[in-house]
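Need the bound structure for pyridoxal-5'-phosphate, inputs here:
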Amino acid sequence: MQNDKKEILNSQFPKAHPLYSGRLFDVYSSWEIEPVKAKGCNVQDKNGKEYLDFYGGHAVISIGHSHPQYVRAIQKQVERIGFYSNSVQNSLQKELAEKLAGQSGYPDYALFLCNSGAEANENALKAASFHTGKKRIIAFEGSFHGRTSGAVAITDNPAIQAPFNIGHEVTFIPLNDIDTVEKELARGDVCAVIIEGIQGVAGIFVPENDFLQQLRSICNKNDVILILDEIQSGYGRTGKFFSHQFSGIRPDIITMAKGMGNGFPVGGMLISPQFEARKGMLGTTFGGNQLACAAAIAVLDVMREEALTENAARVGAYLKKELSELSGIEEIRGRGLMIGIAFRPACSDMRNRLLFESRIFTGGAKNNVMRLLPPLSVSKKEVDFFICHLKHLLESVTI
Ligand SMILES: Cc1ncc(COP(=O)(O)O)c(C=O)c1O
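Answer from helper R.:
Posting the output first, comments after.
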C-alpha cells in the first residue's frame, strides 16, 4: 500500500487504547470456565476437563447438548436457506405450529413466534391489552418475567428496573393468595394476571393446583386474561408439557422459550381462539425464521421419539427421592427436572463445591437455593453420580 494511503487509513481509524480495545459491557458474574464442547448431559471446557450439566445452561438444554438429529436439522436447513423475513411464506412455521399444538395438548391455540422469553411475555402483555383495552397487570411477589420494558415491570425486582421502566400499572400479590387477587380484579381495571408455571428465580415455588383453578375461574368471571409464563417450567421439564397442566386449567396465553430451541434462540406464545389476529398487531424481524423453526421442530421430534417428557417425570421423581435421603437439606421443592434445594445454613456453599470439587454445574436462585435443571434426557446413572458427590460434600460439612 502506498504510504499516503496508509496515513489516511490510520487517521480515519486511530489505534484503540489497549486497555479498552474490544471489551465487553461487563454485566455478568461468570465463572472462570469456558465450555467448548458438549454432548448429552456433559460439557467439556477448553482445558479438556469434563463437567456434568445439572444446570442445562439455565434450563435451556432440553434434548441434550449437540443431539445428532438436532445438529443435522440445523446444518441441512442453513445449507438450504437460513433466513428470510415474515413477508414471505414459510411452511416450517406451519409444521412447527402443528407439531407444537399436538404435543402440548393445545390443538386449537395459535402460535406467535419470537426470539426470547422476555419478548414472548412482552407480546403476551400487548395481546392481552389490545384484547381487553385495559392496562393494569397483576403479577406475583418473587416473579421473574424478563428484562425488556413490560417484562421487567412485571418482575418483582426493583434493582433491575431503570427509571424508564417505571410507570406501568402493576400490582404484586403474594403467591397463592386468591382473596387479594379477587379483590384487585373486582376493581374492574385489570387487563391480565401473569404467573410462572413454577417460580424459578425466586427459588422454585410451585403455585398450588387449587389456587390456579380459582385463578382461572375469577379471571373468567372478571373478563381478565390469564397468562401462564412457562418459559422455564414448560417444554416437558416438569413431566408434563406445561407445568400448569397438573392443575387441569387452560390459560388464555402461554409463553415459552428456553427449552424450545435447545439453545437456538426461539420464543413463542400459544394464544387461545378468543383472540383475533389483526395484520401488524404484533411482529418481529427474526422471529420464526427458517433456521429457528428447523431447530424447534427437531426439538419436538426428539422429545416425542425419545419420550423425554416421560423421562423428566421418571428421572425427576427418582432424583427427588434420592435427595430426600440426604442430610443437610431443609426443603426440596419443584416438579420433574425443575428442582430447588434449600440447604441448612452450614451447607450453603454446595454450589461452588460441586462445581470446583466435583465438576458438576448447578443453578442458583434467591436465598441460596440450588436449582437443578438438567437436560430432559438425563439418566438415573447421571443422577446417581450427582447424588454420590452431593452426599460426600454434605457429609464433610454435617458430620
Ligand atoms: C420464567 C421466566 N420468564 C421469562 C424469562 C426471560 O427469558 P429471556 O431471558 O429469554 O428473555 C426467564 C428467564 O430466565 C424466566 O425464567
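Comments: The pocket of pyridoxal-5'-phosphate is lined by residues 116-118, 121, 144-146, 196, 200, 229, 231-232, 257 (CB under 6 Å). The CA atoms of residues 5 and 11 lie 10 Å apart.
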